[in-house]
Design brief:
The complex is a heterodimer of chains A (117) and B (545).
Chain A: H1 2-20, H2 25-45, H3 68-98, H4 111-114
Helix pairs in contact in A: 1-2, 2-3
Chain B: H1 7-22, H2 27-52, E1 58-61, E2 72-75, H3 77-100, H4 109-125, H5 129-147, H6 153-184, H7 189-198, H8 205-221, H9 231-237, H10 240-246, H11 249-263, H12 270-273, H13 277-297, H14 301-320, H15 325-355, H16 372-387, H17 393-404, H18 411-438, H19 456-473, H20 475-490, H21 492-500, H22 503-513, H23 527-544
Antiparallel strand pairs in B: 1-2
Helix pairs in contact in B: 1-2, 1-4, 2-3, 2-4, 3-4, 3-10, 3-15, 3-19, 4-5, 5-6, 6-8, 6-9, 7-21, 8-11, 9-10, 9-14, 10-15, 11-14, 13-14, 13-18, 14-15, 14-18, 15-16, 15-17, 15-19, 15-20, 16-18, 16-19
The chains are: A mainly alpha (117), B mainly alpha (545).
């Protein structure tokens, strides 16, 4: 279980970073989503991996799993969901207004003609 | 419990919501609400500052839950200083935005501005690292909206870069927090300080990783080389009032470094003492050099101001890196100064832009602009302050930094870097200023744009410059206060005691010792009955199961 979880986090992080280094907006956004999935799993695992245990302290069960990472993950999921929506909209806006989805800005030499904002 | 501590976090979102819901289409009404809120916030912040001067650390327990179980807001001298600085900057920025008409170029400027203030105040006040992450996100999501305010292809594309970079920073922040929680089992700063100090010496690999990850996150915010790439395009393309407000955003990274790396991973913690300062200092030196070289090489005024911001962060982090009280005093003085000077510079650049054709900000001779003399004087003052020339506070700030680092191992390298980069900055600013304000082309009469005549932008920018002058004139009392501040910052036991040993925490301990649940609002006595009630529900549950 630990190996599976650790491998999943590692592979998703690697894929996320690879996509993040691409030139165009869409793969970059995918890369960010990948990274947020990886970090959500990582946060979840930071409370130790426990199977079949309740996240609350009950009188009849002596063991429980730590509820705090689950609350943290919930917050992180909500925030990353909102942020992804924002970056998709901004990427779309940039593509529609500039007619290109390259992440890089034009070099300083071309700035003169561009600066009519 | 002093409820004023939470006021800076509560007032802006309430006003922001009112602006969105009730004053959506009335710009005049939005302006009234926004200015009223910002001025009220400045009043509250000054009140909190006066309160913090007594040296007592104020703690606000949200929901009356004692730390480390609940989230706390902490008000000490450092927090109060930063909150006051932000609030005063906020007044100048909102006045400039109104005077220059920037707030009418798109929708919801004032609402976003209020949410941005909420995030900044929250990040300064919170005493919990996960809550710090949440407030970072609040201020970031508002800043995304502000950054692309007014639209335009270049601004949108620079905005996408900014968002992507900061999302990556947020992800890194979460990784760091996950590691910290996995090692220590807590996220409250005071509790973390206790637990990290107690870690066994041979089991520190994970916490060292977490400390470095966290430093990287704050370095992204503080635009430390090599994590500064988001800053030049963002600051140069952002609307000027927003760029001026962003002058305090880099300082949030510096504040977080001071707070976390004195309190949690302080210089006396053996696990991390040898990795933070020795890495921060060279990076800060390179940051300063790159920033000031950027000032010299900039072809546009916006870029010039952005690189000046990077350079000033370099000086600031040089003063932070030794983590001694004297150097931190110098850092705090320079932090106040560079926030005001950086913001003033962005506003002056925008005044030039607004008076040129097609909002062109190239450092090249153009037709003479309206009010050339006054704007040139403002630019001169802001440039002197940023470059660190006498008589303004930049000079005093750099002097304090140089003096504080007298005993450092790398003293000659540091002194040489600061002094040479100051010279480079002076040359860069002199070149830009003479090119823009003196070498003007004869004005083509017909094509000259209608000059904006509003007085408010001059008042706002002049206010910032007056702040710099005041900081210079009252340098004595200010440094005395900041010296007390940095002493309080390094007295981590006082902070831990203030947060962990509140009246409410003592109450909880007494209740725990007596074997009763903690009394809460509306139930001050019947704790025994409540325990009975709980056991009956438990037995009922057993039956149903």
């Amino acid at each position: 279980m630990e190996y599976l979880l650790a491998t999943a986090i590692g592979v998703m992080t690697a894929a996320g970073i690879y996509l993040l280094l691409r030139q165009r907006t869409f793969p970059v956004i995918l890369g960010i989503s990948m990274l947020t999935y990886a970090v959500n799993l990582f946060l979840f695992a930071s409370g130790r991996v426990a199977i079949n245990l309740p996240p609350v302290l009950l009188n009849q069960t002596p063991t429980y799993t730590d509820p705090l990472p689950q609350a943290l993950v919930l917050t992180a999921i909500v925030i990353s969901f909102g942020m992804t929506a924002v970056v998709v909209l901004m990427g779309l806006g940039a593509f529609l207004s500039a007619r290109t989805d390259h992440i890089d800005l034009a070099r300083t030499g071309d700035q003169a003609e561009e600066s009519g904002k | 419990m002093n409820h004023w501590i939470i006021a800076p976090v509560l007032l802006p979102p309430l006003v922001g919501a009112v602006i969105i819901l009730a004053a959506r289409y009335q710009v005049a009404l939005q302006r009234v609400f926004s200015v009223a809120s910002t001025v009220a916030l400045a009043g509250i912040a000054i009140g909190l500052l006066v309160q913090s001067m007594s040296g007592q650390i104020g703690v606000y327990e949200l929901g009356n839950w004692p730390a480390p179980f609940g989230i706390v807001l902490v008000l000490d001298r450092l927090t109060a200083t930063m909150v006051t600085l932000t609030a005063l900057l906020g007044v100048a920025v909102v006045l400039y935005a109104i005077g220059s008409g920037w707030d009418k170029r798109g929708n919801h400027f004032h609402a976003l501005f209020q949410f941005q203030l909420m995030g900044i105040f929250g990040a300064f006040l919170t005493g919990d690292v996960f809550n710090l992450f949440v407030f970072f996100e609040v201020l970031l999501i508002a800043s995304y909206g502000l950054m692309i305010h007014g639209g335009g292809a270049v601004r949108l594309r620079a905005g996408v870069q900014y968002v992507v970079y900061n999302l990556l920073g947020s992800t890194l922040f979460l990784f760091a927090l996950g590691t910290i929680y996995a090692v220590t089992g807590t996220l409250n700063m005071a509790d973390l300080a206790l637990r990290v100090a107690e870690l066994p010496a041979d089991d520190t690999a994970m916490i060292r990783v977490a400390a470095i990850l966290l430093l990287l996150v704050f370095a992204v915010k503080a635009a430390l080389i090599p994590l500064h790439f988001w800053l030049p395009a963002t600051y140069a393309e952002a609307p000027a009032p927003v760029a001026a407000l962003f002058a305090v955003m880099t300082k949030i990274g510096a504040y977080a470094i001071i707070r976390i790396y004195t309190l949690v991973f302080g210089p006396e913690v053996a696990a991390t003492a040898d990795i933070i300062g020795p890495w921060l200092m060279p990076a800060a030196l390179v940051t300063l050099a790159i920033g000031m070289l950027g000032v010299l090489g900039a072809t546009h005024l916006g870029r010039l101001a952005a690189f000046a911001a990077i350079g000033s962060m370099g000086t600031l982090l040089i003063a932070i890196a030794p983590f001694t009280p004297q150097a931190t005093t110098a850092a705090l003085y320079y932090m106040i100064h560079s926030t005001l000077a950086g913001a003033a510079l962005f506003l002056v650049v925008d005044m030039v832009r607004a008076r040129r054709q097609a909002e062109d900000d190239a450092i090249a001779p153009r037709a003479v602009i309206a009010q050339n003399g006054l704007i040139a004087a403002y630019f001169f003052a802001a440039a002197i302050a940023t470059a660190g020339m006498p008589p303004l506070s930049g000079f005093l700030g750099k002097l304090l930094v140089l003096d504080a680092l007298r005993g450092h191992d790398l003293v000659w390298l540091i002194w040489a870097t600061i002094l040479v980069t100051s010279l480079v900055a002076v040359v860069g600013f002199a070149r830009a200023g003479s090119m823009v304000f003196w070498k003007v082309e004869p004005a083509p009469e017909a094509a000259s744009p209608a000059a904006p005549v509003a007085a408010l932008p001059f008042v706002a920018t002049g206010g910032l410059i007056a702040g710099i002058v005041a900081l210079t004139v009252f340098a004595g009392p200010v440094t005395a206060f900041l010296s007390d501040t940095s002493e309080q910052v390094f007295d981590k036991q006082a902070y831990i005691d203030a947060v962990m040993d509140t009246p409410r925490a003592q109450e909880a301990e007494a209740a725990n010792a007596a074997g009763k649940p903690l009394a809460y609002y509306g139930n001050t006595e019947g704790s025994a009955d409540k325990a009975d009630a709980e056991s009956t529900t438990d037995s009922q549950q057993e039956k149903t199961e």
